[in-house]
Amino acid sequence: xxxxxxxxxxxxxxxxxxxxxxxxxxxxxxxxxxxxxxxxxxxxxxxxxxxxxxxxxxxxxxxxxxxxxxxxxxxxxxxxxxxxxxxxxxxxxxxxxxxxxxxxxxxxxxxxxxxxxxxxxxxxxxxxxxxxxxxxxxxxxxxxxxxxxxxxxxxxxxxxxxx
Length: 163
Ligand SMILES: CC(C)(COP(=O)(O)OP(=O)(O)OC[C@H]1O[C@@H](n2cnc3c(N)ncnc32)[C@H](O)[C@@H]1OP(=O)(O)O)[C@@H](O)C(=O)NCCC(=O)NCCS
Hints:
The chain has about 160 residues and is of the alpha+beta class. The protein has one domain: Gcn5-related N-acetyltransferase (GNAT) (Aminopeptidase, 3-Layer(aba) Sandwich). The chain has helices spanning about 10-20, 25, 40-55, 100-115, 130-140, and strands at about 5, 60-65, 70-80, 85-95, 120-130, 145, 155-160. A 7-stranded mixed beta sheet has the order 1-2-3-4-5-7-6, sandwiched between helices. It is globular. The relative contact order is 0.14. The site of coenzyme A has 22 residues, from strand 4, helix 4, strand 5 and helix 5.
C-alpha cells in the first residue's frame, strides 16, 4: 500500500536517495536541478525552503511512500495564491515505481488539499510537449489543455475546482 504524506525535515536522507537514484530519469522529463542540491546539505536546505513555504501559505509539499516507508514519489502544490485562488502542481515518481498509478494518487491528493485546505478554484500544470505520461496523468484527473503555450516548449493544463 502506498500513502501520501507531508514532507518532513527528517526526510533529508531518504529524499536525497530518491532524487539521486532517479536524477537521470527526472532530467529527461523536467528541468535539471543544480549540482549543489545533490548533497545532504543541499536537500536539507531544499526541505527547509519548502517547509517555510508551507508556513507562509505558498507551498504544500508531499511525498509518496511505499509500504516499507521508502520515498517513491513527490507531489507539490506550488506558488499558492490564495487571493487569486490558484496554484501550480508538480509531481515526480521513481522510474522503478512508475505504472502503478502513483502520480495519479499524488495529483488527486493535491486536488483535495487545494479544495479543502486552501479553498482554491484553479490548478495549473506546465508540461513539456513530449511528456506523454504526465499529459495522461493530467487528463485522467480532469485537467484540460490551455489554449496557449506558457513557458518555452511547455504546455499549460488547467483544472477548474468545484467549490
Ligand atoms: C509522468 C509520471 C509522473 C507518471 O507517473 P506514473 O506514476 O507512472 O503515472 P500513473 O501510473 O498515475 O499513470 C496514469 C496514466 O498515464 C499512463 N502513463 C504513465 N506514464 C506513461 C508513459 N510514459 N507513456 C504512456 N502512458 C503513460 C498510465 O498508463 C496511466 O494510464 P491509464 O489511466 O490509462 O491507466 C512519471 O513518469 C514521472 O515521474 N516522470 C518524470 C518526472 C515528470 O515528468 N514529472 C511530471 C512533470 S510535468
